[in-house]
């Protein structure tokens, strides 16, 4: 039995049954809630490893549930919602969600998102809250203390902004970071000019990570939302 405990917050019975059947088939443990109040109670009582959260709940909006959980816990929250507008995704991610899956979704995609979140959770637990001095992801290696990054053993020549972006993405590997979150961390604001600059810096950083015609993708673009560093096997 998988030791990961998942809280499923979904009031639509067919969708709830699909999710819980999938979890049961793949040996995940789970608990359920059908509304926001129940979700907050179950989260505080059982401290699940991951929360799968619908936004359209009958009592309170799912974004409010995210904000309440974030006031006392960093447990990973994956939103599963029929809301597909970029503004809805950005609102949920800015509130503290770790990932966003749009309905209808495939079982394979749900399981993939769970695996990514589990890997990130395992890394966080292994570090016991202390940031590792070195980050490794495929051929990419970042030595935070030295302020250096390497690809295939060769040092990457990055500008200060590019290096800050790379560190921010690596420290949140597997998590979608919104434009607003990134620009506030890098420039201390979320002005439109900074978002335009972000796109330029991200493009140059991606070129340096994919040099020599390599096909490995380290940075994934979520159009209109933000960026995510992918975990490379």
UniProtKB/TrEMBL annotation:
GO terms for biological process: positive regulation of DNA-templated transcription. Residues 132-231 form the OmpR/PhoB-type domain. GO terms for cellular component: cytosol; protein-DNA complex. The keyword Signal does not apply. PROSITE patterns: OMPR_PHOB, RESPONSE_REGULATORY. InterPro entries: CheY-like_superfamily, OmpR/PhoB-type_DNA-bd, Sig_transdc_resp-reg_receiver, WalR-like, WH-like_DNA-bd_sf. Residues 5-118 form the Response regulatory domain. SUPFAM superfamilies: CheY-like. One of its GO terms (molecular function) is phosphorelay response regulator activity. The modification 4-aspartylphosphate is found at residue 54. Pfam families: Response_reg, Trans_reg_C. Keywords: Cytoplasm, DNA-binding, Phosphoprotein, Transcription, Transcription regulation, Two-component regulatory system. May play the central regulatory role in sporulation. It may be an element of the effector pathway responsible for the activation of sporulation genes in response to nutritional stress. Spo0A may act in concert with spo0H (a sigma factor) to control the expression of some genes that are critical to the sporulation process. This is Stage 0 sporulation protein A homolog. It comes from Fusicatenibacter saccharivorans. The lineage of its organism: Bacteria, Bacillati, Bacillota, Clostridia, Lachnospirales. The gene is kdpE.
């Amino acid at each position: 039995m998988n030791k990961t405990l998942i809280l499923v917050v979904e009031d639509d019975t067919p969708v709830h049954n699909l999710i819980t059947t999938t979890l049961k088939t793949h040996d995940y443990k789970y608990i359920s809630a059908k509304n926001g109040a129940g979700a907050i109670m179950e989260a505080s009582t059982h401290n699940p490893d991951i929360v799968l959260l619908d936004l359209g709940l009958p009592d309170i909006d799912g974004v409010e549930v995210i904000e309440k959980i974030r006031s006392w816990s960093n447990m990973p929250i994956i939103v599963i919602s029929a809301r597909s507008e970029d503004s809805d995704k950005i609102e949920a991610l800015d509130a503290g969600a770790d990932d966003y899956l749009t309905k209808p979704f495939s079982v394979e995609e749900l399981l993939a998102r769970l695996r990514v979140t589990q890997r990130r959770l395992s890394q966080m637990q292994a570090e016991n809250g202390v940031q590792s001095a070195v980050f490794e992801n495929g051929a990419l290696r970042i030595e935070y203390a030295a302020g250096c990054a390497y690809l295939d053993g060769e040092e990457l020549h990055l500008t200060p902004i590019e290096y800050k972006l790379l560190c921010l993405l690596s420290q949140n590997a597997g998590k979608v970071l919104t434009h607003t979150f990134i620009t506030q961390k890098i420039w201390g604001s979320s002005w439109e000019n900074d978002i335009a600059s972000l796109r330029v810096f991200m493009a140059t950083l991606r070129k340096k990570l994919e040099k020599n015609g390599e096909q490995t993708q380290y940075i994934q673009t979520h159009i209109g939302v933000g960026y995510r560093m992918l975990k490379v096997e």
